[in-house]
Write a structure and sequence with these properties.
- By secondary structure, the protein is of the alpha/beta class.
- It has two domains: about 120 residues, Rossmann fold; about 40 residues, Homeodomain-like (Arc Repressor Mutant, subunit A).
- The protein is built from seven helices and four strands.
- Strands 2-1-3-4 form a four-stranded parallel β-sheet, with helices on both faces.
- Keywords: Coiled coil, DNA integration, DNA recombination, DNA-binding.
Length: about 200
Amino acid sequence: MTKIGYARVSSKEQNLERQFELLERAQVTKIFLDKLSGKDNNRPQLKEMLNYIREDDIIVAAELDRLGRNNKEVTSVMNQIQDKGATLEILNLPSLSGIQNDNLRRLLNNLIIELFKYTAENERKQIRERQRQGIELAKEKDKYKGRPLAYSSDSTDKQKRLTYEKIVEMLEKDVPITHISKELDVARNTIYRIRDEK
């Protein structure tokens, strides 16, 4: 049985030292670290760790969100860890290290993580619902403008404004939408929207 740590930071985060300190306190023998920038989804160290782990290993992370950026990614990583017969220990969740029976500890650990994921997903749904309600209320008061259109006559991007004018010109000449889409490299749905506005 080996205790293996996993840490992930983006270029914007400054908590690498904190994660390392927490993992060292948890007495991990090896740490895999991914440094990501922006929306980079490539996590080579996570992949290497998933290949490295063996049955009865314990994977330790400071927080559940270190394993992925969303519920789907986290669930996928958790499933891969379980498939290898390893367990997952998340340091900001209740510890089950005092339970001697491996099967019981694994079962309770998985239950806690599933509850945590369920709670996080519910929070996201509630945020989306409140946002939807806020938009509806703003629409009722005629204050909601929506996201500005990328291709329009009043677009802030000069190139997109010129492209919009070119689309309108081509539509007036009855140029097929598929041809306009290919020539200007604009999605057909965008061209349909512009056509329907006229």
